[in-house]
Design brief:
Layout: H1 14-37, H2 48-78, H3 85-109, H4 112-146, H5 152-180, H6 187-219, H7 226-248, H8 252-281, H9 295-319, H10 321-324, H11 334-368, H12 382-402, H13 406-442, H14 449-454
Helix pairs in contact: 1-2, 1-3, 1-13, 2-3, 2-4, 2-11, 3-4, 4-5, 5-6, 5-7, 6-7, 6-8, 6-11, 7-8, 8-9, 9-11, 9-12, 11-12, 11-13, 12-13
């Protein structure tokens, strides 16, 4: 069943777009940073250059896009308008941007003051987001229980993802205190827990929750079965808590059970979603096979296959750690899992959604202003997005190889990734320019273009 949407509660176009247009710039900076640092960024997942590179992607790109999506999707799905959305969005955006830049500069330079400034800024950004998000989700759940029950699985998954985000932020602040204030904390344990809750609890759970809505909506697939929408998010969060407890008490054998279960759930979600998209997009009439030509579909398929591959590599490392590590030379073999998850799953899935969400929002804004809008496909020609997809596939292959042979391929991989993100920036700006051109040609003399563009 397709979930009912309340587009009358959609916020101003400027609220999500400021996040969507800032995020690719951070990803471009990550590619340029890798081009500059080279193999130093692949020495260890705990090395300062690696931490800076990781946070340029997780905070600067992933969190930026996901926060923009939340501020857009929560009012639409929950049917409850956000109070002062411009103020909230502008505040979170400014705090997150400044905090991310200071944090990454602090990792690279080792200047404690930069980290000391970054921690409160990022803490305030996520505190504001969590307050608005949790308040919004609970109001939506209360309303949905009475008027719109189909929206509850989406909101439930988002609610648990916000809980995971809260844990991620607290663990991150504790870990950052070791760098900024030289506090005596179990740093390696905190980094592992922080990364796990951020990648699995926040990114994966939120992706799954949003997928319940956007995959059937944009990929024209059947809705996820109730068994998935009701239980997946809760199981993931519960298993992650069990794994974390085992990690804290150093019970490695005990932690393998929830760890393997989490891997199985992630792989099952990836394979099931791939099967649903493939059944709709790859198969035409009986006996006929067609190639998916839409870039967002290709990005989704790349993301899901990379998620499954990251699970497979993780399982291989758990089963044969002594034989897997020599393949990576002196490097940390777990970096390959991180590359596949971040550059292979997280970045492409957001990239693909941007190619759907930004054209749709600009098209819808024209429609809501009683302007005859062009076809939504004209806002971003598919051929331009396809070229970026091809470059990103090359960049992902180079990044995966660089995780094993960094001295040879690290800088080449950074250049390819930077080029992919540069093309994403260009394509999104072309969409905005097309939107503004449509406003200019159809604007009423009594209603200025600037007024319509900002809502």
């Amino acid at each position: 069943m397709q979930r009912a949407l309340s587009f009358d509660h959609t916020p101003s176009l400027a609220v999500p777009l400021r996040f969507f247009f800032t995020a690719p710039v951070f990803a471009l900076a990550a590619g340029l940073f890798l081009l500059w640092q080279g193999e130093a960024a692949f020495v260890s997942r705990w090395a300062p250059p690696t931490l800076a590179l990781t946070h340029l992607l997780t905070l600067g790109f992933m969190a930026m896009c996901m926060i923009g999506s939340l501020l857009q999707i929560l009012p639409v799905v929950a049917g409850v308008g956000i109070t002062a959305p411009r103020l909230v969005g502008g505040g979170v955006h400014a705090l997150l941007t400044a905090g991310t830049l200071l944090l990454c500069c602090g990792f690279v330079t080792g200047i404690a003051l930069l980290l000391q400034l970054a921690v409160p800024l990022l803490g305030l950004a996520f505190a504001l987001l969590l307050f608005v998000g949790v308040h919004q989700v609970w109001r939506g759940l209360l309303r949905g229980a009475i008027r719109r029950p189909p929206a509850q699985p989406v909101l439930g998954a988002i609610r648990l993802a916000l809980i995971a985000l809260m844990v991620t932020v607290m663990l991150g602040i504790a870990a950052a205190s070791a760098f900024g204030w030289r506090q005596s904390v179990p740093l390696l344990l905190l980094i592992d827990l922080h990364a796990s809750w951020g990648l699995i609890g926040w990114i994966f759970l939120l992706t799954a929750g949003v997928a319940y809505q956007v995959v059937p909506m944009f990929q024209q697939t059947p809705s996820y079965p109730p068994l998935v929408t009701r239980w997946l998010a809760g199981l993931v969060l519960g298993l992650l808590a069990l794994w974390s407890g085992a990690r804290v008490i150093e019970a490695k054998v005990l932690g393998m059970v929830p760890g393997l279960a989490l891997a199985a759930l992630a792989a099952a979600f990836a394979l099931y979603t791939m099967w649903q998209i493939g059944r709709k997009k790859l198969l035409g009439k009986p006996g006929q096979v067609r190639s998916p030509t839409e870039a967002p579909t290709l990005f989704w398929l790349l993301a899901l296959s990379s998620l499954a591959a990251s699970v497979l590599v993780w399982l291989l490392l758990q089963a044969w750690p002594s034989t897997a590590r020599p393949l990576a030379g002196a490097c940390d073999s777990n970096l390959l899992v991180g590359v596949l998850f971040l550059a292979g799953f997280a970045v492409p899935v957001v990239n693909g959604m941007l190619y759907k969400i930004v054209p749709f929002l600009t098209w819808y804004h024209l429609q809501s202003n009683c302007i005859k809008a062009p076809n939504v496909r004209q806002f971003l020609p598919n051929a331009q997005a396809i070229w970026q997809f091809r470059v990103h596939v090359i960049a992902l292959a180079l990044l995966s190889a660089a995780a094993l042979w960094p001295s040879v391929l690290a800088r080449t991989a950074g250049a390819a990734f930077a080029l992919s993100m540069l093309l994403l920036c260009v394509n999104l700006w072309r969409t905005l320019l097309f939107f503004r051109s449509a406003l200019q040609t159809t604007a009423s003399p009594r209603r200025p273009v600037a007024q319509m563009a900002t809502g």
